[in-house]
């Protein structure tokens, strides 16, 4: 896992570097011709890195007490808050010109690279923590390679939670950020409106994931049903977009966006905390990885649906 984490974080840094270099050297005709391909390659590298890091980190947290999994997902939600704050600062302080937007983008990449370098250091130091050493000794000393058969056997044991995490992210990604950024307008807030809505979502997501530090729904079945009930957000958002004028105003949309973020954060955290504890300890890491894979399926499915919705 240590090798996967270091490789993943290094690939993240590489993908950010490629994109920045392409932008800085975009004056060259040859680079301009190749910039699209290089950018797509950077995105692919970034996706591979995300899979390596997320699978390894969440899998490792699956072996540990529940507060560690909660901390991992609270961390993912915190990143959204940091980016929202950075976007508000850059929009307020920089001109909305091509040059201003370029500087803004460079600030994001610089901030991300600094965080990633810190992550590389801290992820290597974590193995010296007593709790990590204790749980590492509890694992059976055997070949850690996982066959496809074992993966799907564990997936069969946790098919309910896997479906729950899948449907959570299908619903969320088909609405956020595409629908919020592209389909909504405000005469009062103008181009600040989508930025503030995205900030509301990220704050609510963090709140939901932080709530599990104090209270975790103890029934996986109830969590799965609650996750499936989030399909109701589709008609609610459609009504807000095409219904009475008072529903198209800022307050109802902010309330609905807050609920979308809060339920996403809370039920994601609940399912990811409870599922590794519902299988034998030797399979807890693999069950967390299975959940991460289905979370990824949900991200892809939701993104595709969101693209059709915008069209």
TrEMBL record:
Residues spanning the membrane: 37-59, 71-90, 105-125, 160-180, 192-217, 253-274, 286-310
Leader sequence residues: 1-21
Keyword field: Membrane, Signal, Transmembrane, Transmembrane helix, Transport
Annotated membrane topology: Multi-pass membrane protein
Coiled-coil regions, chain positions: none
GO CC annotations on file: plasma membrane
Pfam family, one: Nucleoside_tran
Coarse class of the protein's main subcellular location: membrane
Subcellular location: Membrane
Molecular function GO terms recorded: nucleoside transmembrane transporter activity
Family: Belongs to the SLC29A/ENT transporter (TC 2.A.57) family.
Name this polypeptide is given: Equilibrative nucleoside transporter
């Amino acid at each position: 896992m240590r090798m996967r984490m270091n490789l993943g974080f290094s690939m993240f840094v590489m993908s950010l570097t490629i994109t920045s270099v392409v932008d800085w050297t975009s004056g060259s005709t040859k680079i301009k011709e190749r910039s699209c391909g290089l950018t797509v390659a950077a995105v692919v590298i970034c996706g591979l890195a995300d899979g390596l890091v997320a699978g390894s980190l969440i899998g490792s947290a699956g072996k540990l007490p529940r507060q560690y999994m909660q901390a991992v997902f609270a961390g993912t939600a915190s990143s959204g808050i940091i980016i929202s704050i950075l976007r508000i600062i850059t929009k307020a302080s920089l001109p909305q010109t091509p040059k201003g937007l370029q500087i803004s983008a460079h600030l994001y990449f610089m901030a991300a690279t600094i965080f990633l370098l810190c992550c590389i250091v801290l992820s290597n130091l974590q193995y010296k923590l007593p709790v990590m050493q204790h749980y590492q000794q509890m694992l059976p000393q055997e070949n850690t390679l996982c066959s496809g058969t074992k993966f799907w056997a564990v997936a069969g044991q946790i098919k309910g939670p896997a479906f729950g995490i899948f449907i959570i992210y299908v619903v969320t990604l088909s609405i956020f950020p595409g629908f919020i950024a592209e389909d909504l307008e405000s005469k009062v807030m103008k181009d600040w409106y989508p930025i503030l809505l995205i900030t509301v979502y990220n704050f609510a997501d963090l709140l939901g994931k932080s709530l599990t530090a104090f209270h975790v729904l103890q029934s996986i079945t109830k969590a799965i049903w609650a996750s499936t009930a989030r399909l109701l957000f589709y008609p609610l958002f459609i009504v807000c977009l095409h219904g009475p004028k008072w529903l198209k105003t800022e307050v109802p949309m902010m309330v609905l966006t807050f609920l979308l973020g809060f339920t996403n954060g809370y039920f994601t955290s609940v399912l990811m905390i409870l599922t590794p504890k519902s299988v034998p300890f030797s399979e807890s890491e693999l069950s967390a990885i299975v959940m991460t894979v289905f979370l990824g399926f949900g991200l892809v499915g939701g993104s595709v649906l969101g693209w059709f919705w915008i069209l």
